[in-house]
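Weekly modeling sync, notes
Attendees: S.R. (lead), two postdocs, one rotation student

Agenda item 3: backlog of single-chain predictions. S.R. asked that every request posted to the team notebook include the full sequence so nobody has to chase files. The rotation student volunteered to paste the first one in as an example of the format we agreed on. Action items at the bottom.

Example entry:
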Amino acid sequence: MVLPANVRHRSGGNVYNARLAEALRAEGAEVSVCTLGGGWPSGNAGDRSRFADAFAGGTPPIYIVDGLIASGAPTEIETATSAGRRVWVLLHMPPSGEDPVETSALCAATGLLCTGSHTAEAARRLGLGNVHLATPGIDLPSKARPGPRGAAAPHFIMVGALLPNKDQIFFVDALARIKDLAWTAALVGSTKADPAYAAAVRERILRNGLEKRVERTAELSGPALEEQWHRADLSLLISHSESFGMVVQESLAHGIPVVVRKGTGAVEALGAHGAGEAIDLTAGIGSLEMLLRRWLGDPALREGWLAAAEAASRVLPRWEDTAREVLRAVTAA
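Predicted structure, as returned to the notebook:
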């Protein structure tokens, strides 16, 4: 596996790559990981030279290259495949079709492993062949979700790096409109991926007088993140674009319903479990305000979404399922 080293926050792609490597090993595959620094996805001549070196020496039968690297290095991929290497591109985002360099790189690959249906469909529309779907699995929580939290106010959670695409400011502005109701919220994610946007989120919390109700944490993992999940009653992922939305499945794995933005790949992750809602936000903040008010004011709705999320957690695919799909694809080529 050839993976980028220049994405340093807890992105869905990074989590997927790490868990796929672990799951492949658990299925008996021998897996080595090469991480490449550089200015991917464009990369410079030195970056591409180091990428070419990853194919030199030894004869690993299969290479899985993260699309962030592959999309900027068509010549290196074509050289490797011409020399008999099997080079699979792991696509976390749909190809645009507007970048001839990216299209050439994907055409040169042995095949494509797509982490969501939107990505796979976009690849097929470009006429790319040997496209396989390898959606993320889930990790079972380390401990069971606690019981009812008594008189505690309902708690919202939004997990993801503070980035304009994730639109935490939109969420904060919606919360400012429902200050008359009881609730708390947490924004859990890296503040270093885009420091200027993270500062703008903090300023918006202060401007709206929500500093005592909206907690802004750094990136969390392990027990600290589990504690946040155990406090949550409703998760939100309202990104402008998502190829899949792994955090949606992570929410459902913890028995927490989710609200996602309609028209994004997060709708696929939410599925048809009835554990939340895909909301059209084109009309603006009022749409989200109305949904949050409805959820807070309707105990039957909350209980129904919660029961559906708990049921979904028992049937979601596991990472071993993802690894088996990948192995089936790459060993059949």
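Discussion: group reviewed the output briefly. The mean pLDDT is 93.
Action items: rotation student to repeat for the remaining queue; S.R. to check formatting next week.
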